[in-house]
Amino acid sequence: MRVLGPTTVFGKLLIANRGEIACRIARTARRMGIRTVAVYSDADRRALHVEMADEAVRLGAAAPRESYLAIEKIVDACKSTGAEAVHPGYGFLSERADFADALGAAGVVFVGPNARAIEAMGDKIQSKRFAEAANVPTVPGHLGDVPDAAQAVRIADAIGYPVMIKASAGGGGKGMRIAHSAADVVEGFARAQSEARSSFGDERLLIEKFIDDARHVEMQILGDRHGNVIHLGERECSIQRRHQKVVEEAPSPLLDDTTRAAMGRCAVALAGTVGYDSAGTVEFVVAQDRSFYFLEMNTRLQVEHPVTELVTGIDIVEQMIRIAAGEPLRIAQAEVKWQGWAVESRVYAEEPARDFLPSTGRLVTYRPPAEGTDDGITVRIDAGVGEGDTISIFYDPLIAKLVTRAGTREDAIAAQARALDAFAIEGIRHNVPFLSALMRHPRWRSGRLATSFIADEFPHGFTPPAPAGDTARNLAAVAAAIFHVHAERERHVTHRAPDGERAAPLAQERVVLLGSLRFDVSVVPRGEGIAVRFAGESSRKRSGVAVVSDWRPGAPVWHGIVDKEAIAVHVRPTQNGVTLEHAGTAAAARVYSRREAEAAALMRDKRPVDAGAQMRCPMPGVIVSIAVTPGQHVKAGDAICIVEAMKMENVLRAERDGVVIRVHCGAGDVVAVDAPIVEFDVSPRGP
Hints:
This protein is α+β, with helices and mostly antiparallel strands. A nine-stranded antiparallel sheet has the order 14-13-10-11-12-15-23-21-20.
């Protein structure tokens, strides 16, 4: 990354955020010779961003309104520590003009755009008016505040369905709903308004046309306080779920040089119109024919900024700090060069099998892949957690960002897939297997993207499939190698040979059961590893699969060479075996003698007990409201309750007709995953 040298413009910087972005800002500040101050809630007392900072100040309780959204407390923290500037990161107060004004009144520099630019561009309604004035094409919609659901329905009817309802002051997928009918508008309006109120302190909404099969492409810009504005190229962020980005890349596989230049000119013109003076992002909806429309402008640092940093070599956080200190940009537009391709995956605490609903809990195991650059491949981890930390219900479920860069898109994706396979997380549900499978998805690899990609390809969420083909064969070889390590250890402990002598070799014939697949193999020591021979294979393969690894029992990831290919496999011990996860697949693996395999085939599988007709909470959260009472008749699809988890409100609906027998909780209750909420009688009833 391009280094501009140390600076003494600020002696001390307060970071008004938490998690990975607070840690990422602290790293750049440290390199620039700036001392840092962390702020924290009670839930984050021992968080990594607190440990990294030179000083730390407690703000209050875990709820954001009592801590990270409390402007007065953050201003007081600046005064008590002598912080000269504040970087807001993203989310929380990053796009609040009143926060920038409050800091200015206290004599503290806001590391972000001026308050007037935030007001103009941070507000989606105002920003569209400015875009039209700058001759930037915009998505058709209603340019004005929508006061209530009834007016929203009238506006949506006039625009034509589907429409997007979104928070005027929002971002990060909060306060956004797609409506395909008037009924969707009524419900979506209430949910979007509630989320906007709790996340941004601003419940204003707007409505615009939702463009089907569209792509999400954004332009990173930098503006200084001397009238200079440049763009750093585009990022494609079309892989989304619940309107939140999951995978981003730079550049976009769709854009050509002509479209890129046109979008860049629009982004720079729009920023210049409002005197923009920091890092910002101009977001566009792009059709498959490359026609584009202004969507919104985020007047802050974006979650996905690392992909731009890796292809340009420019530290965007450093640029923000220097701009805030009054320095002119040292980079002209002609000097911005793009090299290679970068891909970023957001590792979330969520359950892909439950439609990507958030998960919480303790990170019993957290072992990210190694960072660094080797043979033209860069792996970068931006994280704000460590092993033993807890993912709570109060904040965004982001665990870490995994970023890879290579010379081509194909190589960057391949590097991302390898790194995901080596990412070990235990203790909570997470999306690493989904991301690993996504990296191998033919449609993703071909670049045929749309914001509906996940909904199209994974309409019922994602459950790791059983391995097949070469993947299954490789995992069978790994299972045999794991058994070999365990068996060798046991043999040396229980039948210790005299010094200088080798103990007698084990029986070689084995049966590997990999899920429903059976492999008859023989294991033969070979050099530093083993050879796994598969029965019935052609003479070309009779020498077996060469397997080399220094894996030891207890390690969560098996790293090794299988058939001359370096692979990583997640290993989770189970009764009488292990569960192996690789390349987005998963299977229980057991290694037996032939006699043991015959006996195992006679064992019956245990079936889960039917929990009855209950609605159980699909994720940990807080009950916002209950819409039913005992004795009430409900139809399939009726709304039963609303659960808030990690700043998102989720409507839970009845799966079939029935009568409410019992309501187990009420508004304000904190519920765990799978906790019963409502119990039904679904027995057939006569006329």
